[in-house]
């Protein structure tokens, strides 16, 4: 699904908004991943192409470790600031996020009387800023894919470095093209034709797992509780860091659905991952369910069908219990502890 003001208006409106602004800020979600960070970088290059007079700042509320390493390896960290405030602006671009609750303290600086453009591949959420121009394709595997489509629509040719960044973003969020569509592959071919290297992109993402991440994954396995949900196996656990990686590890071990929480400073970050067979067979969309769970528990959440997160001001046990109940009710299947 693509959400915007009309198929023939999106490019016109985007160009008009960018060219009419003198101070533009670009930001993304908390714990910005590879796709988010590289999309912000390329978005800045697109803005500069459309409006060379504008001052453009890229500010994220913090990058995750992999994103920081990738940005450093590409030599683009100088253009991306990690901060907890936004400067005054005429136009704000939200990349890889459409819920203001997911940009942390930066949401306090997104003012209602200034225009906002959303470029994203997540389903529209209840936390979208009103009256934003939303370019959202939730069939795309990455925001980098959406940006690639925008460049093609605008007739812009990416530089070799921009093409490489977009390719890395697509590979990162598609798990090296394990998921995607025919259009995803066409976009990859487009980027390769503009100098991107598939082997170099894979090498950039193939960084060794840190000692801390290995420990988190193993501890999640050690602390796991197993449940049956009809024919499906659900694994839940808790760690002190790397909860997303730990949830993916539990799915790789054999769980159909996994949820791992990390409790810190009175808040719980819950990350859920699901196998493709589970998602296709049940029709469950984890992003929708975690957005619902966050709303029910005075927090926020969202994501994709097979990968989503929520941040909730509760205890781990309460959040896990709420998650299991929500999934059980949604699928109309009993949840039973496996001893």
How would you briefly describe this protein structure?
It contains 12 helices and 14 strands.
List the keywords.
339 residues; Diaminopimelate Epimerase, Chain A, domain 1; 12 helices; alpha/beta; inorganic pyrophosphatase (n-terminal core); single chain
Shape: globular
What percentage of residues falls in helices of 4 or more residues?
A: 40-55%
Mean pLDDT: 93
CATH architectural label of the largest domain: Alpha-Beta Complex
Annotated CATH topology of the largest domain: inorganic pyrophosphatase (n-terminal core)
Helix segment count? 12
> How many E strands?
14
Low-confidence stretches: 1-6
What is the CATH superfamily of the largest domain?
inorganic pyrophosphatase (n-terminal core)
Terminal residue distance: 42 Å
How much of the residues is beta strand, in percent? 15-25%
Largest sheet, spatial ordering of strands: 1-7-6-5-2-3-4
Order of helices and strands, N to C? EHEHEHEEEEHHHHHEEHEEHHEEHE
């Amino acid at each position: 699904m693509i959400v915007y003001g009309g198929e023939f208006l999106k490019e016109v409106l985007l160009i008009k908004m960018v060219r009419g602004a003198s101070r533009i800020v670009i930001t993304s979600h908390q714990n910005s991943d590879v796709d988010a960070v590289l999309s912000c970088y390329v978005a800045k290059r697109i803005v500069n192409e459309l409006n060379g007079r504008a001052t453009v700042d890229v500010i994220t509320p913090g990058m995750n470790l992999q994103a920081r390493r990738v940005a450093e390896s590409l030599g683009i960290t100088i253009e991306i600031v990690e901060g907890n405030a936004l400067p005054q602006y005429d136009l704000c671009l939200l990349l890889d996020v459409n819920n203001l609750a997911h940009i942390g303290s930066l949401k306090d600086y997104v003012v209602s009387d200034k225009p906002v453009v959303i470029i994203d591949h997540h389903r529209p959420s209840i936390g979208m800023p009103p009256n934003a121009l939303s370019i959202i394709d939730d069939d795309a595997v990455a925001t980098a894919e959406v940006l690639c489509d925008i460049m093609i629509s605008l007739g812009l040719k990416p530089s070799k470095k921009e093409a490489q960044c977009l390719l890395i973003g697509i590979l990162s969020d598609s798990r090296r093209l394990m998921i995607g569509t025919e259009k995803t592959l066409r976009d990859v071919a487009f980027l390769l034709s503009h100098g991107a290297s598939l082997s170099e992109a894979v090498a950039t993402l193939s960084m060794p797992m840190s000692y801390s991440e290995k420990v988190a994954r193993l501890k999640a396995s050690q602390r796991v509780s197993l449940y049956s949900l009809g024919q499906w196996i659900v694994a839940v656990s808790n760690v002190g860091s790397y909860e997303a990686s730990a949830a993916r590890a539990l799915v790789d071990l054999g769980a159909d659905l996994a949820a791992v929480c990390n409790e810190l400073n009175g808040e719980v970050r819950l990350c859920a991952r699901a196998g493709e067979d589970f998602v296709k067979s049940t029709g469950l969309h984890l992003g929708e369910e975690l957005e619902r769970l966050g709303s029910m528990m005075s927090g926020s959440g969202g994501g994709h069908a097979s990968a989503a997160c929520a941040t909730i001001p509760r205890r781990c046990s309460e959040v896990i219990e709420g998650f299991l109940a929500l999934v059980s009710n949604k699928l109309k299947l009993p949840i039973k502890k496996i001893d």
